[in-house]
Design a protein that fits this description.
Elements (H helix, E strand, L loop, with lengths): L1 E2 L8 E4 L5 E6 L5 H11 L7 H9 L3 E8 L5 E8 L7 E8 L8 H12 L4 E7 L3 H9 L3 E6 L9 E7 L3
Parallel strand pairs: 6-7
Antiparallel strand pairs: 1-2, 2-3, 3-4, 4-5, 5-6, 7-9, 8-9
Helix pairs in contact: 1-2
Length: about 170
Amino acid sequence: MFFNGSRDPFARHHPLSPHISCTIRQAVREDLTALYQLEERCFSGDRMSRRSLAHHIASPRAIVSVAVDAEHSDIAAYILMLSHAQRRDDRLYSLAVAPTHRGRGLAGQLLQECERLSHAPNLYLEVRTDNDTAIALYQRLGFRETARRKSYYQDGMDALVMIKSKSQ
């Protein structure tokens, strides 16, 4: 990871390919509209509302990281990680990559950024059982299936619960 020279000391520059580069930084309130539009483009159901996104951006228990396309200055992807005082593990709650930016490694870079920022011993997530691309990515990054939640999603689809120990 390379420091990108921006005023944000937490921003990191990530070269994705010879044609695209992105900066990963923490979301700010001004990102709200772009994040909501990304939700609309990426998810047909189980979307977060503007209000929920605003709450998470402001919450000390949430980390919302965004990947900003350096060429177009738009948000190409985001990830939301939640911490709970009563739980030992952090939860990767949402990950969205704009269709025009898929296949460029953004999801993996955002997951690694959450892993770096997390103070918990484990990270866990739920993923739709029909999302083979995401499941393969999570497995490549060391997540393993631990449970299945029946009819977890709005449309009745099951979810796999996956966990990764940060000590791996």
